Amino acid sequence: MSLALGAHVGAHMNAHTAYTVLDLIGTFAFAISGAVAARQRRLDLFGIVVVTFMVACGGGIVRDVCIGAIPPAGLSNWAYLAVSLLAAALTIAAYPQVRRLRHPVLFFDAIGLGLFAVAGAQKTWIWTNSAETAIVLGMVSAVGGGVLRDILLSRVPAILEREIYASAALLGASVQMGLTYFDWSSFWTPWVATAACVALRLAALYYGWRLPVFQTRDLVKKPPRKAAADEASQDAH
Amino acid sequence: MSLALGAHVGAHMNAHTAYTVLDLIGTFAFAISGAVAARQRRLDLFGIVVVTFMVACGGGIVRDVCIGAIPPAGLSNWAYLAVSLLAAALTIAAYPQVRRLRHPVLFFDAIGLGLFAVAGAQKTWIWTNSAETAIVLGMVSAVGGGVLRDILLSRVPAILEREIYASAALLGASVQMGLTYFDWSSFWTPWVATAACVALRLAALYYGWRLPVFQTRDLVKKPPRKAAADEASQDAH
Amino acid sequence: MSLALGAHVGAHMNAHTAYTVLDLIGTFAFAISGAVAARQRRLDLFGIVVVTFMVACGGGIVRDVCIGAIPPAGLSNWAYLAVSLLAAALTIAAYPQVRRLRHPVLFFDAIGLGLFAVAGAQKTWIWTNSAETAIVLGMVSAVGGGVLRDILLSRVPAILEREIYASAALLGASVQMGLTYFDWSSFWTPWVATAACVALRLAALYYGWRLPVFQTRDLVKKPPRKAAADEASQDAH
Known about the structure:
Three copies of one chain form a homotrimer. Helices cover 78% and strands 0% of the residues of chain A. Chain A is mostly helical. The first copy, chain A, has one domain. Chain A starts with a helix and ends with a helix. In chain A, 53% of the residues are buried.
């Protein structure tokens, strides 16, 4: 990459100090959710740290690899690792308290989702100048960590069968790119896009909105694994 | 990447319009197989779209990341996304009809397999000039999407335990690279290589050919739980 | 990448012929462990070869993609593929003998772990000049193959819930980077770092050391299925 583009990216990033703080809050909320899931699966100390880090940084690492931002920020910026370690330590030391945090965690997770989707879309746009790539990778930045967590824990990724989650990230990345692409972008663009994502996610949580699942006749005849998955998704609410 | 190489790649790609059409047919066949699998697992609307897109484009994205073709064509070329969305919409709207397509789907899937293996090998060769990398990544282009689908659906990838599928892709990529490497390549090279892959795959389907599975005494004697524990204590890490 | 850096990397690598030999021994030990696991899962011939190759080379490929060393050495250097094929062939042809190798395999695996962690950290340092990235990717080089094996075989990666394994790789990569970063590096640096990793791993095996697992009251009280459902409803996404 040319130095000029490097400087441009650098300037763009430094302009948003408040943004960086919110990014770290989002990372922290994601990391807490990873640490809780890892501890519930009874992984050992190291396993908890790895899963925590993957949830917090995995989506961004996949995005950076796909756009050629080498080495990925999640690996080269010590702040992400530090936040992950902090979240893992907190979850281990104060598990009952963290468990009781369900609502705050869901709230910050929704904010993290919006911030990651918008920041991921923006970074991809700067590096590739492709709006489609920016929307797809903005969503991947936001939900990739959770997908990697579920792959590591050997279960079907939750975002594929439950709730309006990735769709909210898709909305946030699309609003950001729509405004940017048609040159309506301003100081408020990322905040509007983030707010759209967060609002959709919180409304879906509050009202229990879900995307349709399509019943198929051949499934009625199928094995018990299906029933277990169904049971799990029913118990969830 | 230098502009000269970019132009070379561009010229090479533009020369094959018929090729592009067949590539999209292959993508469509792959996408249909992904959408059917996702719908059978009762994923929601979004989950179906994601799995469909991964099956259609996942292998190519992994290849492009490995050869440095950034951003991957599967993300930056809207045609692949459009074909995936079309396949997902068709599978949702006309599921009984699509289900009845088993034989046409297997036929187009075999053609997609051959085209992806050969095109993947050729693209890798142009970017890396390494015949071994081209053969391995040609195969990965063809089967990677199916492997990612099975990882997302939390099952052992079908290609690792069933049928002559990846081996047919390996044959196609190897024929392409063999002819190219020893400078016997001509206008017909990709078609011969694709035909070799498709013929082997269809013959294996028709005659039920399979690769050998090696029986092990210790697996026959033990119940699954016990075998798993033994396996855990046996393997090195 | 500039030619000068390329030459530097080349010179650095060529200097260590003994190192290359030990690297291939480590690759071979990793490959044997992959082939044994694949055969126990009754994968077919092709599945065994793929899993063997992934265990031997997967970690290095992930590292090379993350640092931009394109195409990854595991794909472009035929020696790694040849060693993997040899290990797969041996495991298929002489399975009872290989099964009886438990202790030698664990021993060579520990040596491979140390060599991969240190070499991975060193390569990452040369390419990125970031000590944190080098430590993380050094560990990834060493354990990534095993994690990919477990993901392909649809089980929770062993390193997340068992034994001191990844932690030993972390120690090796950290010692290497600590000495390099503070300019205490010498001819002996990689050997000291490798020895630290191997010694910790072998001692942990011999004395049965493990990392702590944190018991949680809610898991003890619930049957597994119920706990999983609770987990699904608890974590954020």
